[in-house]
Design a protein that fits this description.
There is one protein chain. By secondary structure, the protein is an all-alpha fold. Helices cover about 75% and strands about 0% of the residues. It contains seven helices and no strands. Helix 2 runs antiparallel to helix 5. The longest helix has 26 residues. The protein is globular, with a radius of gyration of 15 Å. The N and C termini lie far apart (about 45 Å). The model has no long low-confidence stretch (mean pLDDT about 100).
């Protein structure tokens, strides 16, 4: 089970990127969403649901991986970035190259900046803290996406 947890937590290897694994995880999430949009017609609602669905397995996988490597929030855990990117995409009013780019940028900004309560959620124990802060960063990104969409800014 631990190897399954590590596979999920690293998003099947994206977390092993030698530079900026969090960015690699967010890009992996974006790529999956784009493929699902192109080939299955998935839209913002589906991406939001995907983010919610991956949250609880992500808590488990992140906790198990953190224990295995002996770190509170190891950089190789990127399932949280995948989830946060999907949640951010849930706020898009339309999907075009600008909205994909905006969702990626907004999520990464909030994930790195960690405005309240993102930073406070990061302090939750185990996998909860690893996942919850990125979920909230995704919510912030989705809110900005929705607001910008109201004014056709992308």
């Amino acid at each position: 089970m631990r190897s399954l947890a590590i596979a999920v937590a690293t998003w099947f290897g994206a977390g092993y990127a030698p530079v900026a694994p969090g960015t690699a995880g967010a890009l992996a999430g974006l790529a999956i969403a784009w493929l699902m949009h192109q080939y299955l017609g998935a839209g913002p609602l589906v991406f939001g649901l995907m983010g919610v669905i991956v949250f609880f397995p992500g808590v488990w996988a992140a906790r198990e991986t953190a224990i295995a490597v002996g770190k509170k929030d190891p950089g190789l855990v990127v399932v949280d970035e995948v989830m946060g990117t999907w949640i951010t995409l849930a706020g898009a009013s339309t999907l075009n190259w600008k909205s994909w780019l905006m969702a990626f940028a907004l999520f990464r900004i909030f994930d790195i900046w960690k405005p309240a309560p993102v930073r406070q959620l990061e302090k939750l124990p185990g996998g909860w803290g690893i996942m919850a802060d990125d979920a909230m960063a995704g919510v912030y990104g989705a809110l900005i996406m929705a607001g910008m969409g109201c004014f056709n800014l992308y």
